[in-house]
Amino acid sequence: MSTPKDKLDRLPPTVVIENIQPSIEGGRYPVKRVAGESLMISADILKEGHDVTAAVLKWRPQGQDSWFETPMIPGENDRWSATCLFTENRPYDLTIEAWQDEFGTWRAEYLKKFGAGLKELRTELDEGALLAEHAAQRTGTPEDRATLEGFAARLRNGDAPEGAAVANDETFVGLMSAWPDRTLSTEYRPYLKVTVDRPRAQYAAWYEFFPRSAEGKPDSGSKFRDCLPRVDDARAMGFDVIYFPPVHPIGFTKRKGRNNSVTSEPGEPGVPYAIGSQYGGHKAVEPELGTLDDFDWLVGEIHKRGMEVALDFAINCSPDHPYVKEHPDWFYHRPDGTIKYAENPPKKYEDVYPLNFYNPDWRNLWNEMYDVIRFWCEHRVRIFRVDNPHTKPIHFWEWLIGEIQRDYPDAIFLSEAFTRPKMMKSLAKVGFTQSYTYFTWRNTKWELTEYLTELTQTDMRYYFRPNFFPNTPDILPTYLQTGGRPAFLIRAVLATTLSTVYGIYSGFELCENVPVPGKEEYLNSEKYQFKERDWNAPGNIKPYITKLNQVRRENRALQEFDNLRFHPFDNDQILFYSKATEGLDNIILVFVTVDPYNGQSGFASIPLDLFGLGENETYQLHDLLTGERFFWRGRRNFVMLNPHERPAHIFRLRRLVGQDGSEQIFG
Amino acid sequence: MSTPKDKLDRLPPTVVIENIQPSIEGGRYPVKRVAGESLMISADILKEGHDVTAAVLKWRPQGQDSWFETPMIPGENDRWSATCLFTENRPYDLTIEAWQDEFGTWRAEYLKKFGAGLKELRTELDEGALLAEHAAQRTGTPEDRATLEGFAARLRNGDAPEGAAVANDETFVGLMSAWPDRTLSTEYRPYLKVTVDRPRAQYAAWYEFFPRSAEGKPDSGSKFRDCLPRVDDARAMGFDVIYFPPVHPIGFTKRKGRNNSVTSEPGEPGVPYAIGSQYGGHKAVEPELGTLDDFDWLVGEIHKRGMEVALDFAINCSPDHPYVKEHPDWFYHRPDGTIKYAENPPKKYEDVYPLNFYNPDWRNLWNEMYDVIRFWCEHRVRIFRVDNPHTKPIHFWEWLIGEIQRDYPDAIFLSEAFTRPKMMKSLAKVGFTQSYTYFTWRNTKWELTEYLTELTQTDMRYYFRPNFFPNTPDILPTYLQTGGRPAFLIRAVLATTLSTVYGIYSGFELCENVPVPGKEEYLNSEKYQFKERDWNAPGNIKPYITKLNQVRRENRALQEFDNLRFHPFDNDQILFYSKATEGLDNIILVFVTVDPYNGQSGFASIPLDLFGLGENETYQLHDLLTGERFFWRGRRNFVMLNPHERPAHIFRLRRLVGQDGSEQIFG
C-alpha cells in the first residue's frame, strides 16, 4: 500500500495552466494553420499567493530540440495571451511555460517599501544582489554576465535610494527578465499540436474534370496525352489545382451503363469509382487513359504550368479488383462464403465490394491503403480528394494521414463527406486538411450567413477548412437547375469570395443544368458515359470566373479565411460582407444578390469604424469586376444589382491618401 | 525508424466518443456529487458508415472491478445521454463504452428488405441465425441461452415472413440487446472522476464560535468543558456543524493585543491564528482551553447531539512554533540566515512566519501537513475549514485532500479563499469540497441574481459548492453595519434559501454590527481579546434563524442546490426565486426584499408552466415562516414586504388535490 509521500516523487506543477485556447477537444487534435500564418494563444495561468508570475508561449517544429519563445501578457481575470508565427510546412508542438518571477516579486516589493519611505532596506538590497548574482551565472554572454555582476555590486554596496535606482534601471530589468530562474517552472503537458500546412491548403482554386472527357468527344474517351488543352483552359481561367476523378482501371463485372443503368453495352466506359480490373487496382491507371508514364508526363506538364494535380482516393473495389483474389479476407462475406456487394437496403450496388476495415487481417489492409497513397505521392501527386471517408473508420484516417504527412508534410487531404455535421467535423479534427461542405445547398441570405458565421467565427475555423464546390459530378443542386445562367454567376461569386478554397466541376462554366428529373443529379452524367461538349459553348461564364480568380489573386484579404464579416443590408435578397487584412491595407466589400430572377436593391450600412473611416469621410469603392469607381460617404449607401448583368459588386475600398492639384488620390 | 504499421500494434478506437459533459477541464478534475444524487452525462458518439451504434454509460466506485451500466440514448445531432446514480461516499470512475450494434444493424436491414417486398432472404436469415447463435454463447444463464438458440433455429429454418416475426419478437430483441458482441467496442479513456461526498457536504448549517468566548465572560476565557451551552443553543437554532477557529497553542512572541495592536499586555489571550508555543503546534490544543481529552470529550458531546465539529486548518506558525526550531529549513530566510516573517509591503506581520512549500525538504513539510489533518481525523474531526488556501500551492491541496479522502472519504474541506474568481474556482477543482464565496458582498438584486446564476447554472455547479457566510470573524460587511436588524434578517433569508450550505459567525444572531471605523472589521474583535456577550440579548434574531433552519429541514427543495431559478418581479428591491424538486412534489417560492430600510411591494410573474399550473388554476401559497395561507390564480400577483416585520415570504406552493364537501384541499 502506498503512503501519501510516495505520491511526491516529484514536485507537482507549481503553476496552474489551463483552458488553453484554441484547443481542439482539449488538445486531443491539432489546430490547423498554414506556413506564414500566426496564431493567438490564450490560457488561464494561476499561482498561489501574491508573487509575480511570468509565462512564455513556446512552439517548435516536431523533432526540433529548441523552442521559439515569446512572453505571454496577462489580461483581465487571469487570462494570459501571446501570438506565435509558424514558418514551416511541418507539424509543430506548442506549449506554455510559467514560473514564479522571483526578481519581479523582489522588484515590486522593494519599490513598494522604498516608496512607503522605509530607509533600512539592507536585507532587501542583499536579496536583490543575490538574485542578480544568480542571474549572472545563467547568462549566455560574458557581457551580460559582467553587466549583471556590476548591478549586483551596486545593490550589495548601495543604500536604499541606490537600490531603487537599480530596480528602475531598464538594462537591469531587461537582463533579469532575459535570464530568469526557471528551476521551479511548470510546462503544460501534453504539448498541443499544430498542423502547419502549405499555403495552397488554404488558398486555391480547383478545377475538376474527367480525363476521358478532355476533348468532349461523343463516342470515345480522351487520354492523358489529350488533356493539355483542358488544363491550359483551366489555367487561363485562373485555376491552380486540376482534380481528376479516379484514373484507375475500371471493373468489367456488373459494369454500369448510361445514367446508372445496371447493365452496360460493350464499349461503354464504366464508372471510374468501380475500381479494379485485370489491368490492376489502386496503383494502376486505366489503359483507356494511357500508361503510368503518360500520367507522369501529364503531372509534369501541369507542374510546369505552376499548377498541381489532385487525385481521387476512392476505397471501392469492383468485383474484378486484384484484392478480391489476393485478399478475399479483406471483404465482407455471406454465411455461404461469397463476398458481399455494397447495399443500402433495399438498394444494391453490385458493381462495388466494400472493404471490411476490421477484418482479422486489418493491419495489412490498412497498410496497403497507406501504400496506395504513398505510391501516388511518389508519382508527384500531393493532393487527395477522399471519396466518402465517413464510411471508413475515423481513426483509420487519423493514422493514415498522420503517417503520410510524416514523410510528405505537403500532402493535402480533402474529405468528401456530405453527411451529419459532427461526422464532418470529426473527420476534419482527425486530420483532413480540407472538407466538402453544405455550401452546395446553402442558397438564401439567412442560410449563408448562418453557415459561414459558424465556419469562420466558431472553433471550427481552427480545424475545418471548407472547400466550396457549387457543383460536383454527383450533385447538380436545384438552385443551379432552375436559376439559369445568373444562378451560376451568383454561386461563382459566393464560392470565390466566401471561402479561400473552392472548386468547380467542369461544365459549371458552361452552365450545364439538365438534371435527371426530380433529382439533384446530372442527366447523361459523364460518370457513366462519354460526353460531348463544346468547352467554349455560347453563354459560358468563363470570362466571369477568370475575373473572379484574378480578383482573388490580387487581393490578399480574399486569401484569408476567418476575416469574413457580415454587415447589415436592408434587402433579404442581397448579402453584404467584407474581408479585410489585419492592417486594413486591403479591404474588400462584397454585395451579391441571391435572387437569380429579379433585380434587387437596397441600402447598406457600412461599418465605418471597422475600416477606420470617419463619419464624414469620402471613400472610394473600386469595383474590381468592372473597373468602375464610386464615391461614398457615411454609413447608409444604395446598391442595385441585376442577376443577369451585375449579380455582384466586389469593391475594393480605397481611402483618400493624397491630393494632386485638384485631384484626389485614393489608395 | 518506425514504419506505418508499427503504429498499428492494436486497433485504434472504433467509435469516436468525445465532448463528454459535464467534465471539468476535459476530465482533469472530478465532478462533485453527494451520495444519493444522480448525474446526467451526455457525449458526442460517432461511428463511420450507416450501421446502428450502441452505447452504455458505466460507473463504479474506484477500486471496484465491475461497473454499473445503463444504456445511452441518442438525441439530436449525434448527442447521446444517460443518467447515473451514486450511492456511496467514495470516489467513482465513470466512462462510456460504445460499439457497432451488429444485431441492430441486421434487424434494421432485414426489416427494410422485407418491407420492400424482397422474398429471397435466405442469406439474411442465416446471418441472423449466426448472430443469435453467437449471442447464445455469451449469455449468463442456461435459460437465456436456450431461448436464443430457439430463435436461431427459427431463423435458420424459417422463410422471410418467419424471419420478420423473429426480428420483431420482443423477447428476441431484448435478449440480443442484453448480450451484445462488444469485441470491437471502444471505452472512453482516461476515466472521468466523480467525487461523491456525503450529503452533509451539500446540505448543512454551520455555527462558528470561539471556544474561549462560549460563556461571554469579559475578562477570562471559557474552556472546552464550558462549551456545551453554546452548542445546545446552536442546536436549538437548527445548526448541525459547530465550527471552531484554531484551538491550538497560541504564540507568545510578538503576540498581538486588542484590536490588532502590535503589542499585548500580559494576560491577553492572543490571536488563535498565530499558532504554536512551548505547548505545541498544530497537533496540540491551547492549554487555556483544556486538554486534548477535553477536546475529545467535547467532540463526543457534539456527536451525541447529531452534530459535528469543523476545525480550522491555518498553516501559520508563530515564532514559538516547534517547527521553527525543529525544521528551520521549512521557512523563508533572509540573506543573514534569520527567518522571515509575513509581509504585504509595507505591512509587516511579525507574529507569523510563513512556510516555504518549495523548500528543499518540501516532502517532509507536505507530509507533516498531511499528518496534522490525519491527527484530527483520528480525533473524530471530519470537517476542515482551510484558512487562506490560495497562498499555498494549488497542487499541494490536490495531493493533500486526495490522500486524506483516500482513507477518510467523509472528510470535508472548506476553502476560505476570498480572492480572484479563477483562483477560487481552481481550488474547488483540485478538491475543496466547499468554498467561501462573494455572497458576503453581494447585496443588490442584480448582484445576487447574476452571481447565483453563475453558481447554479454554469459548469461551476459541478465542482464549486458555495458555503454562504453573511459574516465571518474577519468580515463585517457594510450592509450589516448600516442596515440594522432588518439587514440581518434579510441576509439570513438569502443565505439559507439561495444556497444549501451556509454558516454564521456567532454574534450574527445578536445583530452585532459595530465596526472598526471605516473598515469591514469588527470593533473589539474576539480574535484579539476576551469578549463579553449576552447570548440572549434583546433584539436577537434567534427565533427567525430557528424558523429558517426548520423550513430548510422540512423542504427537500431547499436541500437541492442547482434547482434555483429566478423569476420576474417588477420591483428592483425584491428578489423572487423558486426551488422545486424534480417531481414538483416540493415547490418553494421565495420573495425577499433587499432594502433594509423601507417597505417594498410589486407584482410577481409566476412561471405557471414551470410548476405545471394552468392559467386559471387556483393555487395555495403557504407561508412557512408565518403559517399564513394565500390563494392565487394566474401569473400576475401582488407581494408587499416590510424589512422589519416581514422581510420575506417563503411560500410552499400547494395545488388543489381534492375536495372535502365544500372545502378545497391543497396538498
Give structural attributes.
homodimer; 667 residues; Immunoglobulin-like; TIM Barrel; 4 domains; 7-stranded antiparallel β-sheet; 15 helices; 27% helix
Structure description:
- The structure is a homodimer of 667-residue chains.
- Chain A is an alpha/beta fold.
- Chain A folds into four domains: 16-195, Immunoglobulin-like (Sandwich); 205-247 and 285-315 and 362-554, Glycosidases (TIM Barrel); 253-279 and 316-354, no CATH class; 564-655, Immunoglobulin-like (Sandwich).
- The first copy, chain A, is built from 15 helices and 29 strands.
- In chain A, 46% of the residues are buried.
- Chains A and B meet through strand 1, helix 1, helix 2, helix 9 and helix 10 of A and strand 1, helix 1, helix 2, helix 9 and helix 10 of B.
Instruction: Kindly state the percentage of residues in helix of chain A.
Output: 25-40%
Mean pLDDT of chain A: 96
The CATH architecture of the largest domain in chain A is Alpha-Beta Barrel
Please give the largest β-sheet of chain A.
8 strands, parallel
Query: What overall form of chain A do the CA principal axes indicate?
Result: globular
- The name of the CATH superfamily of the largest domain in chain A reads Glycosidases
In what range is the share of β-strand residues of chain A?
15-25%
CATH class of the largest domain in chain A: Alpha Beta
Number of domains of chain A: 4
- Work out the helix count of chain A: 15
